[in-house]
Amino acid sequence: MKRVMISAILTLVLTFSLSGAGLAAAPSAGFLDRPGLRAQVACPVQGGKINKDLYIDYQSQRVYFCCPGCLPIFKKNPEKHLQKLQAQGVVRKRVPVEIKMEIPVPAS
Question: What total number of domains does the chain contain?
């Protein structure tokens, strides 16, 4: 019975996490076609070309960087660097919020 209950709960969690994956999609092309809005192409710290492998998910939005040294600088004052992106009309990619859930298993 315990295994069936745990299996059902895990199936529900997996189903909800997969159904929410579409919520993390980047803004549609039509959205970026609006005047003054564009995808991020420059690092908010040094202004270099972004590397899609270097990023921080901040307030459910992804921020890309040009080099590993920019990440700790951003973390010291994220709002300062986000203002640069906003002034440039950059639309950041939304990312799903990670929800960690522990399922208590009754002792036998």
Answer: 1
